[in-house]
Design a protein that fits this description.
With 404 residues, this protein is of the alpha/beta class. Helix content is 37%, strand content 20%. The two termini are 15 Å apart.
């Protein structure tokens, strides 16, 4: 089954085309991105698996045009990998927020679209863009089945005492204010993959997955089921991130608003886009830049990296307490997979668990590795994530099930 995976942002569309023989056997035929949608000049970057990368700069007025450009690139005589549009069997979409409506992936229908729309207020930058992607594919490929895969779905098993806030209960009843969690596709994928890596049964285990990147979240998983996660009502809650502040005292928000004379939208911009690595360092939101600056002696960059490690150590510690133990700690995401310094700092603070750290194995960079020694009482791994593969697998399963 040939599946096109779409990840629609407000001004970009990332895509990957996979030929799925089954869940374990597949080929990536092509991947790419259409970016700067709606701006004066956009860019399409198309990378077929066995051909040279193709880059084209042109105006991309809207998401419908972007989807058409993607499909044209996939079927292009010179750069394409498909003979025609009829070769595409299904399309899978990443959708950021499914609220309490979805605890699993779903085939696109009018009802599903309406429920996604109802979650727009929860993720105003993402859900409307995700819906634009669904609409654009419906226009370009009207007969092709589509599947939605939700960032929030995996976390819907959290018990009420984990997801509820200590606010008047009526706000939950009226407005759905609760903790939802994000990065669900990544957390599910790496928990399953890492369990196989170390030879334990994910359905009889206690696992902490650490997805650390420009956005970061940590999840506690007992017997394959989420019991807690660090992100909340929005992806702002939790750890220090690239441009997000993570956990702060709520009283700070009105205090800054009064002092700086900021509107609600302006303070949200500060918390989401001007804080985190960028806000503390004053220079960059990129962890690679933090490493370079810290190595050159920059004190604020060093502070960023120390706080990132500290936040992660705290999250792991509280989830060990929640689960009454841990069998496996997983590092994934852009930073988790590529920062040996972060993994070392964190694991050195987990010796009380009986974690014996393998310094040599920890030199791995962006490839799967077990970074605990054979004598360690707790496994630790670097496990690469693949959210597009999760989406493709769910799409294949739902489309096949619908055929039956």
């Amino acid at each position: 089954m040939i599946i096109l995976v779409i990840n629609c942002g407000s001004s970009s569309i990332k895509y990957k085309l996979l030929d799925m023989e089954n869940e374990e056997h597949y080929k990536v035929l092509a991947k790419g991105i259409a970016e700067k949608i709606g701006l004066d000049m956009g860019r399409l970057t198309h990378s077929p698996s066995n051909k040279e990368k193709f880059v084209r700069d042109l105006e991309i007025a809207d998401h419908k045009i972007a989807i058409k450009l993607v499909i044209d690139a996939l079927t292009d005589a010179e750069h394409g990998v498909l003979k025609s549009l009829e070769d595409i069997d299904a399309v899978g979409h990443r959708v950021v927020h499914g609220g309490e409506y979805f605890s699993d992936s779903a085939l696109v229908s009018d009802d599903v679209v309406k429920k996604i729309e109802k979650c727009n207020d929860f993720a105003p930058l993402h859900n409307p863009a995700n819906l634009l992607g669904i609409e654009a594919v419906s226009h370009a490929l009207p007969k092709v089945p589509q599947v939605t895969v939700f960032d929030t779905a995996f976390h819907q098993t959290m018990p009420s005492y984990a997801y509820i806030y200590g606010l008047p209960y009526e706000y939950y009843e009226k407005y759905g204010i609760r903790r939802y969690g994000f990065h669900g596709t990544s957390h599910k994928f790496v928990a399953d993959k890492a369990a196989k890596q170390v030879g334990i049964d994910v359905n009889h285990s206690k696992i902490i997955t650490c997805h650390i990147g420009n956005g970061s979240s940590v999840t506690a998983i007992v017997n394959g089921v989420v019991v807690d996660t660090s992100m909340g009502f929005t992806p702002l809650e939790g750890m220090l991130m690239g441009t997000r502040c993570g956990n702060i005292d709520a009283s700070i928000v009105p205090y800054i608003m009064k002092k700086e004379n900021l509107s609600p939208d302006e303070i949200l911009d500060v918390l989401n886009k001007k804080s985190g690595f960028l806000g503390l360092s004053g220079q960059s939101s990129d962890a690679r830049d933090m490493d370079e600056l810290a190595n050159a002696g920059d004190k604020r960059a060093k502070l960023v990296l120390k706080k990132l490690s500290f936040d992660l150590i705290k999250n792991i510690g509280q989830y060990v307490a929640v689960m009454n133990g841990v069998d496996l700690i997983v590092f994934t995401g852009g930073i988790g997979e590529h920062s040996s310094r972060l993994r070392r700092r964190v694991c050195e603070n987990l010796q009380y668990l009986g974690l014996d750290f393998d310094y040599e194995a920890n030199t791995a960079w962006g490839e799967d590795a077990i970074i605990s020694t054979p004598k360690s009482k707790v496994f630790a791994t670097l496990t690469t994530t693949d959210e597009e593969l999760v989406i493709a697998r769910d799409t294949m399963k739902l489309v096949d099930k619908n055929k039956d």
